[in-house]
Amino acid sequence: MEPIKYEFSAEPYCDEWVFVALPTELSAEIRSNFKSLEEGWGRMKVTATLGNSEWQTAIWFDTKQAAYLLPLKAKIRKQERVVLGEAVKITISVYLSLI
Q1: Rounded to whole angstroms, how far apart are CA atoms 53 and 85?
Q2: By CB count within 10 A, which of 34, 37, 45, 92 is most buried?
Q3: CA–CA separation, 80 vs 12, rounded Å?
């Protein structure tokens, strides 16, 4: 089954780890449609794409921001020359076959 893809731009920031926050409207749509896929602490498995890099990861729902957070691995940040505070274009894919 084909994944449902969401594309967005966000600025990476550091809070012990480096994250991007999905836009709140997009987060609300994803949570409304796929909350059943969440595991503990609002964790949902996804595939993320940034530039030429694609990796298996998870997003976490942060109730304070009312948004999902996507961690950016050091390897990906280095490969794609990510700079904190500079917006990056990301695509996440949610696979319905996980239901």
Answers
A1: 20
A2: 92
A3: 12
Categorise residue 81: left if φ over 0, alpha if ψ from -120 to 50, beta otherwise: left
Q: 4-98 maps to which CATH number? A: 2.40.30.100
Over the stretch 26-84, which tens digit does the pLDDT of each residue have?
999 999 999 988 898 889 999 999 999 999 999 999 999 999 999 999 999 999 999 99
Give the whole-angstrom CA distance, residue 36 versus residue 95.
Answer: 12
d(CA 56, CA 47): 5
d(CA 22, CA 11): 10
